[in-house]
């Protein structure tokens, strides 16, 4: 099933590339992502009914395994459903940013990107993961550059070079790990480290390997201070691309990192070994990212750059959760992947709608927008409130999960940055809302209510994303149980 | 049966949201719609207070641990009945007042939703539910503060939001800890703290409890998170300032009661440094609020400073941790809610009719608007605490509570501060009254015109004034009811 998803997306990508007509390309994009979402859901149901599935090609060291467990299904559904909604939203938005003759290329790149992201998550063997990571870097840089403005080309090249730096660091880590454990397979590494007590005999190798992998993933997933490419790339890309980049692309690398750390080393060794030190660093850097990302976001005047910096802060949350290194911490980080994906994609699409309708990206000139585009701004408000962590929105559940992980692991001081960060989120999302609905400009605005609103059928995918924000806000029990099972399977030795 | 608890929460929320889509542009239609909603809501709340059982009702499960649950107990009955009654009077008053503000539809949208959210705070059966409605209250009421959309009001609204979020965040931080140390985060009379889980972390938990109470104290205008109140309340339209000062500050009080008496338990705090810190903070707030009100010249801002001071009377009563002090606190909570409504409504009437915003301009206003100023005078007397009005009864119990409890120097310092503050209250309220009725020789006694406001505004004020006096004269049932609540938790 996993292979079917990757193949479907790749075939769709090729089809989109070769077609000359932008209408056909849109149809291919929409159809393929819809089919992908359906396949992902079917795969999840299958796994829930009959347990994890695994396929291996070849044999020996170079054997490639695709392993579909609960977490892989979770990510596949996320890529499938959120990806479909973003592509759906892009139908009406993309021509604003991308020339007509580049549209087939855009959809080709998006489908290729989704395919490689799925592969990053599905592959159990490090070689397969590495190849997928590299391919996804190119596709991701591609959907930035496709807008074809000077700033995009610069941003895309910056992204690509730092991305490649990141993947080479990851590769070096993988090589050292191979030397130490003799395996290029996460299950094999886990057996070697946890079964043969390598942590005692070869701790330097393992620390170096994981240190390099952490550094590499930090670049790929924009962990502060390796985030410098993100505001440029996400800020200048076409809005649907920004939505995909921040809500999906960053997450694939994080899931790979989680599999390496928690699948490879396991909770017990993390708690009582030099690994703890490494994860402490990750945790502290995550905390710094939470605060620094928000502070930088407050300083922005460009709406998309503000949302992009907010992503930097949110990545900090996830790395903090990983750094806590307990089951609750991992769970909080995984849940935040979902939370951030549904919220941030909606926010980027809203920002895109605003820019498209008003040709203005400056936050200071958005007064009265609540009168011109009430529905759009209401969606922005939902996203903002979720980011702040107001109950009934998914962000609150995230905040709750992080807090229980913190209290459970006795790292009480972390509650302070967690609280400050929530306040900082309020400081940059709410002023936009206030200015849009209540400022002087809103009072003086003479145009009729909703005069610049996009038609409701174009807004529908964003509305559905907002519904997901609320759905996972009021009832996150089932998905939490699902993730819990995923964590159990991920960390079982010799899976 | 208890699913009915959801009705008075959802009814106003839905009704409020529907005001814009229903296109109630016609003033008469809109007034009929809004008044029907608030009156029906009041009736339902009272019926529920009389008939509903005490079984909890769970609406939602947000995640594996947190659920949103409603339940009705003594405190809920008190708070919801008080809030929904004051909402009815403020609503009728607003029908006339809002004629000069504009943007009525948006005002009523948020005004009507707010009462639903407040009922939610009243019925909350656990801390997450309380926190949910508490945050919603902040987000729903800040448009009321910013209603006039002037630079000043937007600034005040932002200040309100910032302070509220800081307060709520501190409270939420406390909640994460209490979740670890309490056996349940549902409200249990007397608290559900598990001392064996606390172990040697008593000091940590004490700090957390202090932080939580100070966080919720933000809404109640307790020092050091009080500064938003004097800038936020006066800029709102008068009916909104009345309920902000009269009712919404009490939501902060209710939240503090829930944390202190229903989660942590009075025994954990009594006699510790936490109690002394809280007592000092409340007494300082009482004194500071009165002083600032005394020297403030802007009419509504003076009333707002008065709220800062008076709500901390209530908090002082709670912090004595003595049943008598607790009863006094609840009595003063009711008294202040009613009285501050009258004061703000009459200040609004003066602004509406005469556009006078400074206390120095109020010379002779008692001749011109006799009903309004009589209500104002009686309410002032009640707030100062002159028998037989409601303020006397409550201050009596507050002082008795302080004198009978074991709180060291505060036994005397407390009542003394309350007394000084009462003098200041007389100073800043009765001086307005005397100028209003006795304007002096240079007042044109022959030529003044009566400019009394119409019945929409006077009738609510008169009803509340009568209530403020009656609550003092026939306080026994209330005292019994409050004593019953107090005996359940201490």
Task: Give a written overview of the molecule.
The complex is a heterodimer of chains A (about 500) and B (about 500). With about 500 residues, chain A is mainly alpha-helical. Chain A has one domain (about 1-490). Chain A contains 22 helices and two strands. In chain A, helix 3 (about 70-95) packs parallel to helix 15, helix 6 (about 150-180) runs antiparallel to helix 9 (about 205-220) and helix 15 packs antiparallel against helix 17. Chain A is globular. A two-stranded antiparallel ribbon of chain B has the order 1-2. In chain B, helix 6 (about 150-180) packs antiparallel against helix 8 (about 200-215) and helix 10 runs parallel beside helix 13. Chain B contains 20 helices and two strands. Chain B has about 500 residues and is mostly helical. The longest helix of chain B is centred in the last third of the chain and has 32 residues, at about 325-355. Chain B has a domain at about 270-490. Chains A and B meet through helix 18, helix 19, helix 20 and helix 22 of A and helix 5 and helix 6 of B.
Question: TL;DR of this structure?
Answer:
With 495 residues, chain A is mainly alpha-helical. Chain A has one domain. Chain A has a two-stranded antiparallel sheet.
Give the uncertain stretches of chain A in residue-range form: none
- The helix count of chain B comes to 20
How many helices of chain A? The count is: 22
Name the chain pair with the biggest interface and residue counts per chain. A-B, 37 and 35 residues
What is the beta-strand fraction of chain B? under 5%
Give the distance, in angstroms, between the N- and C-terminal Cα atoms of chain B: 30 Å
Low-confidence stretches of chain B are none
Tally of discrete structural domains of chain A:
1
Q: Structural class given helices, strands, pairing of chain B?
A: mainly alpha
Please tell me what the overall shape of chain A is: globular
Tell me the helix content of chain B: over 70%
The residue fraction in helices of chain A comes out at: over 70%
Order of helices and strands of chain B: HHEEHHHHHHHHHHHHHHHHHH
Order of helices and strands of chain A: HHEEHHHHHHHHHHHHHHHHHHHH
Terminus-to-terminus distance of chain A:
19 Å
Average pLDDT number of chain A: 88
> Would you count the extended β strands of chain B for me?
2
């Amino acid at each position: 099933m996993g292979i079917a998803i990757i193949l479907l997306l790749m075939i769709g990508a090729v089809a989109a590339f070769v077609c000359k007509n932008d209408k056909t390309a849109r149809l291919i994009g929409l159809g393929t992502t819809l089919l992908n979402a359906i396949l992902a859901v079917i795969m999840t149901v299958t796994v829930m009914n009959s347990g994890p599935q695994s396929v291996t090609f070849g044999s020996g060291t170079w054997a490639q395994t695709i392993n579909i467990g609960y977490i892989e299904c979770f990510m596949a559904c996320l890529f499938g459903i959120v990806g479909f909604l973003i592509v759906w939203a892009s139908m009406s938005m993309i021509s604003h940013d991308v020339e007509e003759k580049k549209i087939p290329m855009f959809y080709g790149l998006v489908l290729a990107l989704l395919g490689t992201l799925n592969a990053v998550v599905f592959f159990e063997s490090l070689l397969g993961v590495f190849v997928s990571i590299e391919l996804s870097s190119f596709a991701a840089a591609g959907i930035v550059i496709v807008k074809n403005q000077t700033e995009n080309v610069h941003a895309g090249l910056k992204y690509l070079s730092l991305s490649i730096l990141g993947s080479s660091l990851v590769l070096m880590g993988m090589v050292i790990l191979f030397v130490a454990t003799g395996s290029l397979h996460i299950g094999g590494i886990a057996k070697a480290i946890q079964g043969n007590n390598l942590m005692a005999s070869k701790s330097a190798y393992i620390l170096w390997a994981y240190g390099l992998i952490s550094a590499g993933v930090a670049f790929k997933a924009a962990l502060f201070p390796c985030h410098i490419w993100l505001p440029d790339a996400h800020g200048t890309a076409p809005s649907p691309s920004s939505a995909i980049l921040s809500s999906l692309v960053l997450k694939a690398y994080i899931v790979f990192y989680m599999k390496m750390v928690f699948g490879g080393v396991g909770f017990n060794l993390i708690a009582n070994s030099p690994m703890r030190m490494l994860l402490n660093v990750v945790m502290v850097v995550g905390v710094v990212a939470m605060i620094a990302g928000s502070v930088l976001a407050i300083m922005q005047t460009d709406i998309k750059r503000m949302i992009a910096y907010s992503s930097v802060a949110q990545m900090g949350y996830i790395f903090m959760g990983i750094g806590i290194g307990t089951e609750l911490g991992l769970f909080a980080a995984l849940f935040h992947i979902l939370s951030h994906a549904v919220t941030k994609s909606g926010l980027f699409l809203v920002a895109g709608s605003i820019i498209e309708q008003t040709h203005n990206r400056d936050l200071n000139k958005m007064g009265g927008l609540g009168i011109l585009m009430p529905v759009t701004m209401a969606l922005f408000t939902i996203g903002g409130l979720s980011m702040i962590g107001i109950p009934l929105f998914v962000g609150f559940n995230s905040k709750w999960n992080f807090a229980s992980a913190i209290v459970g692991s006795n790292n009480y001081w972390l509650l302070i940055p967690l609280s400050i960060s929530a306040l900082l989120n309020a400081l940059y999302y709410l002023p936009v809302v206030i200015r849009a609905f209540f400022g002087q400009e809103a009072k003086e605005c003479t145009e009729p209510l909703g005069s610049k609103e996009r038609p409701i059928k174009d807004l529908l995918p964003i509305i559905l994303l907002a519904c997901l924000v609320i759905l996972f806000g009021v009832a996150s029990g089932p998905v939490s149980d699902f993730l819990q099972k995923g964590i159990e399977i991920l960390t079982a030795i010799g899976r | 049966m208890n699913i009915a608890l959801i009705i008075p929460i959802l009814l106003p929320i839905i009704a409020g949201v529907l005001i814009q889509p229903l296109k109630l542009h016609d003033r008469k239609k809109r007034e009929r719609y809004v008044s029907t909603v608030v009156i029906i809501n009041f009736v339902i709340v009272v019926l529920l207070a009389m008939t509903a059982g005490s079984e909890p009702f769970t609406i939602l499960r947000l995640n594996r641990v947190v659920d949103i649950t409603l339940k009705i107990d003594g405190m809920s009955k008190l708070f919801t009945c008080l809030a929904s009654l004051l909402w009815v009077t403020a609503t009728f008053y607003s029908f006339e007042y809002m004629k000069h503000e504009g943007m009525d539809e948006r005002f009523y949208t948020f005004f009507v939703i707010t009462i639903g959210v407040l009922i939610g705070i009243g019925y909350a059966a656990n801390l997450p539910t309380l926190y949910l409605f508490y945050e919603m209250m902040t987000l729903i009421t800040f448009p009321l503060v910013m209603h006039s959309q002037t630079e000043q009001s937007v600034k005040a609204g932002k200040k309100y939001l910032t302070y509220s979020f800081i307060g709520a965040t501190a409270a939420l931080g406390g909640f994460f800890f209490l979740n670890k140390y309490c056996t349940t985060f549902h409200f249990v009379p007397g608290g559900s703290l598990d001392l064996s889980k606390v172990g040697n972390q008593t000091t940590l938990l004490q700090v957390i409890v202090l932080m939580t109470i100070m966080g919720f104290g933000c809404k109640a205008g307790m020092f050091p998170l009080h500064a938003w109140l004097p800038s936020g309340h006066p800029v709102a339209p008068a009916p909104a300032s009345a309920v902000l000062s009269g009712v919404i500050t009490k939501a902060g009080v209710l939240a503090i009661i829930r944390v202190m008496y229903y989660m942590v338990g009075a025994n954990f705090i009594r006699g510790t440094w936490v109690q002394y810190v809280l007592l000092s903070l409340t007494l300082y707030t009482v004194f500071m609020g009165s002083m600032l009100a005394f020297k403030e010249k802007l009419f509504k801002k003076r009333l707002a400073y008065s709220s800062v001071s008076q709500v901390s009377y209530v908090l002082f009563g709670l912090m004595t941790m003595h049943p008598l002090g607790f009863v006094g606190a609840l009595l003063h909570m009711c008294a202040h809610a009613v009285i501050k409504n009258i004061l703000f409504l009459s200040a609004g009437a003066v602004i509406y009719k005469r556009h006078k915003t400074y206390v120095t301009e109020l010379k002779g206003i008692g001749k011109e608007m006799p009903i309004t100023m009589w209500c104002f005078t009686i309410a002032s007397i009640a707030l100062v605490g002159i028998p037989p009005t409601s303020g006397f009864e409550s201050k009596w119990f507050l002082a008795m509570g302080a004198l009978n409890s074991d709180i060291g120097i505060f036994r005397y310092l407390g009542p003394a501060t309350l007394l000084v503050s009462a003098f200041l209250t007389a100073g800043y309220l009765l001086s307005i009254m005397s100028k209003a009725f006795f304007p002096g020789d240079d007042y044109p006694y022959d030529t003044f015109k009566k400019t009394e406001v119409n019945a929409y505004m006077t009738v609510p004020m008169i009803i509340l004034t009568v209530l403020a006096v009656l609550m003092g004269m026939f306080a026994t049932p209330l005292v019994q009811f409050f004593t019953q609540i107090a005996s359940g938790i201490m």
